[in-house]
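Side project, low priority. Logging it here so it doesn't get lost.
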Amino acid sequence: MGQTYMDDGNLARQAELASQLHGDYDTLFFEGTWYSTGTLADQASRFATGLTRLGVRPGDRLLVLMANCPQVSITYTAAWRAGAAVTPLIFLVSEDELRHALDDSGAVGVITTAEFLPKVLGAVTGPTSVSFVVSVGVPPDLDETPVPVPVHDFAAVAAAEPGTIVPRAGTDLAALLYTGGTTGRSKGVPLSHSNLAWCGQATDKTSATADLTTHLIPLPLAHAYGLLVLCIGIFKTEPARTILMRWFDPAGWVALAEEHRVQGTALVPSMIGMLLTQPLEKHDLSELTAVASGGSPLPAQVRAEFESRVPAATIYEGYGCTESATIISSTPADAPRPGSVGKPVTGCEVTIQDEHGQQLPPGSDGEICVRSPGVMTGYWNSPDLDSTVLARGWLHTGDIGHFDDDGYLYVVDRKKDLILRGGFNVFPRDVEEALLGHPDIIQAGVIGRPDPRLGEEVVAFVALRPGATVTAEDLVSYARQHLSATKYPRDIRIVPGVPLTSVGKLDRKQLREWLKAELSAGFNPAGDLAQAEAGTLAGRGRRGDGELVSVGEESLVPADLQHRAPLVAVGAADRAGREEVAGASGRAVHCHMGEHLRRGPVHGGERRARDQLPVQPYLQGQVQAAGRRLRQVRQRCRILDGVIGPGLGEGVQRHDPW
């Protein structure tokens, strides 16, 4: 079967062949409803015709910014049937980031869900290549509101008659993805039909979840991960069922896993950590045997606790990057090795190279370099970067790692994150792992700062468990006991929350911004100063990280909620940008997220006013705990009340915590 698919080369045709092979059966469960393969295929065929009527032509790009729903996979298949390429973008992006992707990709249309329609319309205001927007659900009052481009209801567009597949070759563009932008502006990664077909086939052959038939999907489908899920499904040899969550909610995940006897799931480490706050032992999760983890390193303590509390399950780590069609290595189902990201998948060649391009032996750290049928041919609109990233015919991932003697790959850290302290290499992940061994630390992020004597000094930002009273000095002493003198951080900042990117990775770029703002202002707090709060307040004038959540009279930093609730569906801003939700204590929880949902306090927001989503009990408890910690911080630091005006770049007068 696989050979037949690869000969065709067109993903739309491959999806059609898969549907014919497995027949019509219930394959997708979403919010109380089952969807059959026949229904999804019919909708994709009709939506493709509708897109063509809107002016979509072969080679055009369609940007997809959607909450999880059946229409995401329908959109992907329909776009390919129409000969177009998809540009998935995670819904947590800011309006500025969305505008950048639209401008850079030259997208002709945007497919979205009603929660994010205001953000989309804001991004397409002004000069744009976008000629239409399609939304799953359109507010009834939209006809009375001036809009920059026509907005069509998804159901109406998908009411067209079924059409045929536009011929496309395997080398034609199928998807234009954008990198996470953790080291700079997001870059476009073009992937062909053949790139993605290989990705799905190779993953299905090697994944520990390949033989399982019931999967729970909480991760965003409008993302590179969603493409991987769809492509894997194309190459499944047995019918499979997917339980889809609109967005991740720890309690909801546990309930669905138990109700549907879920066998496999895919999570990022921050989600696994949040699941540990649930009473897992009280639920029957005996069918759950495989948990795929990726996106960032999985702390050993988190793995050990989850596997001990869900004894039937094993966590399998994998590794990939956008430039490699999301997949490089996968852990063998019959031989997991904790700490490793497995072995290279079939067809993927991986070497560890030094700075001169020489291959290094097992056990030696160097840059992870890759060759495979999934690797891109170059960045979109950035040919100047190709000679470095694709030097000597290898994709240079920018990650540092090594092989062991058995061929298992270990990712040590990002090359650009390496700290050079006094001539010694310090990998931030080593320091973070050591700090996470402290019982009071729930998250840690490590970066380097300039030092006139040593070149760089190690700086650690840590978030504590609720009620913890440990001091920064205590943590420095702990680090000294567990790390060598060349590695342990002399500078540890206790903050309300360590920031994460929109896909749950540690956001070192944001940590560097905090440090940069501090240094540029000549401000050098020590001990338990809430640097996260200072950086957040200073950013309000730039409409950046300054969206606060207030509980009673206390203001909480978004980073604190961000690291605890990425992709969690809770009450948030409606189309007007503000609402009030009753919290567990009866006090009001005000959520204002404006145009920057990614940086907002609660993710999965910007909902329609008619959707009554209660604040999750988990988040309520975390809000209250964060308030207690913030009061402790304020006993040591006088934080100015009121609204801080323009940001540092616009001349804000910094508050003095002393």
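Brief comment: The CA atoms of residues 170 and 180 lie 26 Å apart.
Revisit when time allows.
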